[in-house]
Amino acid sequence: MFLFFSKTLDLLLAPLTWVILLLCASILLLLWRRARLAGLVVALALAVLALFSSDAVADRLARYAEAGAPRTFRPDVTYDAVIVLGGMVDPGASRASGEAELTDAVERVLRAFELLRSGQARNVLLTGGFIGARPGDRSEAEWLAAKLEEWGIARERVAIEGKSLNTRENAVESSRIVAQRGWRTLLLVTSAMHMPRALGCFRQAGLHPDALPVDFRGSDGRGTGWQPRAASLARSTDAVRELAGRVVYRVVGYSQKV
After folding, report:
1. Which pLDDT band holds residue 100 (cuts at 50, 70, 90)?
2. % of the chain residues with pLDDT over 90
3. Domain boundaries, the chain
4. What confidence tier does 60 reach under pLDDT thresholds 50, 70, 90?
5. DSSP annotation string for the chain
6. Which of 66, 132, 148, 205: disulfide with 171, CB 3.0–4.6 Å?
7. pLDDT tens digits for 7-36?
8. Which pLDDT value is given to residue 98?
9. How far apart are the first and last CA of the chain?
10. What is the mean pLDDT of residues 67-94?
11. Is the four-CA dihedral 172, 246, 189, 127 of positive or negative sign?
């Protein structure tokens, strides 16, 4: 039930959804012969689209969302395991190509690979499944495990958790594996924007890993403009959803304050 609610909320929190709803409202107003009001609503829709599609707004939202990401990684520690949260494999593209097709969040697994290769982490726990997975589909964790093996990481160093479908489930399922393996020193790796909510979920689940945020999306603000870009709309959408997700997770008790 929560999964359905969260995905519905994701849809409603997208600025593009707001634009579509406003345009639908303007059509209704035209049918009701409220042409002036309909024109104002259309203007508002265009303003929302232009605003959230601009680099300037997207950068500010991304920086704000990433500002609360703690970084407690200790370079002098050899971690029993680095925990990598999913969200970097495109299921449809991977199914079509037969290879792990990675998204913009690929830095999560790349950083884990570096830690494993350098010896700063003994093991890796890959956590994440796919919503709406088809029979016979690999989980995201399985795709990533295969990729790490291709890169030379021994299979016995890779633990897989492929059932979880959201951040709270990532934390709960990971806590069981950590207890089974007897791991003590842990490092959580995820995107900077996602880190506050993720770390809060892991603490709620009884784990207290160090944090290493990666995949920063906010720039230094130089050279940003107001021209609309599809990529900026996507960044704005991710930031709005993540900020709202933190509130929802805190309210339902899935996450602690970081």
Report:
1. confident
2. 80
3. 2-67+226-252, 79-214
4. very high
5. -HHHHHHHHHHHT-HHHHHHHHHHHHHHHHHTT-HHHHHHHHHHHHHHHHHHTBHHHHHHHHHHHHTT------TT--EEEEEEE---B-HHHHHHHSS--B-GGGHHHHHHHHHHHHTSEEEEEEE---TTPPTTPPPHHHHHHHHHHHTT--GGGEEEE----SHHHHHHHHHHHHHHHT--SEEEEEETTTHHHHHHHHHHTT---EEEEE------STT--SSB-HHHHHHHHHHHHHHHHHHHHHHHTS----
6. 205
7. 677 788 899 999 999 999 999 999 998 899
8. 87
9. 26
10. 94
11. positive
Residue where the block lists tokens 């690999």: 138
Average of per-residue pLDDT across 94-104: 89
The CA distance from 48 to 186, in Å, is: 42
- For 129-160, the pLDDT digits (tens) are 887 777 778 899 999 999 999 999 999 999 99
